[in-house]
């Protein structure tokens, strides 16, 4: 199993975060706080009309104050529960939402690249992650 001490885990999480932030449009909340991929994931999963347990778990962690921190916790939760590919795929279903959140260079806007990314993430479902949440 992959644990918190694994170098590969840190590299994987950094690459996932890079992908989710790459060519992300700058958006601000009503109070001026910069939105990040966490906000994109929340909006995408909210469209599915069912509460995602990972979103519920992360929002219950009151020590997390920033969207980036919440996004990182969500990625870890999804890795442990083998839900990362499915959760991201649900967020990537709506092309209008993707264009609202990402500029044209984002790999998520390319059907071929999106399929490659999701295929690789689905392969991670075979890996056991024992991470502190």
From TrEMBL:
One Pfam short name: RUN
The protein's name: RUN and FYVE domain-containing protein 4
Compartments it resides in: Cytoplasmic vesicle, Autophagosome; Lysosome
Molecular function as annotated in GO: zinc ion binding
InterPro entries for this protein: Run_dom, Run_dom_sf
Gene this protein is translated from: Rufy4_0
Record bears the keyword rRNA-binding: no
Domain (RUN): residue spans on this chain: 3-133
UniProt key word Electron transport: no
Source organism, top-level taxon: Eukaryota
Function: ARL8 effector that promotes the coupling of endolysosomes to dynein-dynactin for retrograde transport along microtubules. Acts by binding both GTP-bound ARL8 and dynein-dynactin. In nonneuronal cells, promotes concentration of endolysosomes in the juxtanuclear area. In hippocampal neurons, drives retrograde transport of endolysosomes from the axon to the soma. Positive regulator of macroautophagy in dendritic cells. Increases autophagic flux, probably by stimulating both autophagosome formation and facilitating tethering with lysosomes.
GO BP field: autophagy; cellular response to interleukin-4; plus-end-directed vesicle transport along microtubule; positive regulation of autophagosome maturation; positive regulation of transport; vacuole organization
Alphabetized UniProt keyword annotations: Autophagy, Coiled coil, Cytoplasmic vesicle, Lysosome, Metal-binding, Zinc, Zinc-finger
Gene Ontology terms: cellular component: autophagosome; late endosome; lysosome
């Amino acid at each position: 199993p992959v644990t918190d001490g694994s170098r590969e885990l840190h590299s994987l999480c950094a690459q996932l975060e890079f992908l989710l932030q790459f060519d992300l449009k700058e958006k601000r909340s009503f109070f001026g706080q910069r939105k990040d991929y966490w906000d994109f994931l929340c909006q995408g999963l909210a469209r599915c009309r069912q509460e995602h347990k990972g979103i519920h778990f992360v929002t219950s962690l009151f020590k997390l104050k920033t969207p980036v921190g919440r996004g990182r916790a969500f990625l870890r939760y999804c890795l442990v529960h083998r839900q990362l590919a499915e959760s991201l795929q649900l967020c990537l279903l709506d092309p209008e939402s993707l264009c609202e959140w990402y500029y044209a260079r984002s790999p998520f806007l390319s059907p071929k690249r999106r399929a490659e990314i999701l295929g690789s993430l689905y392969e991670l479902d075979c890996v056991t992650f024992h991470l502190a949440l």
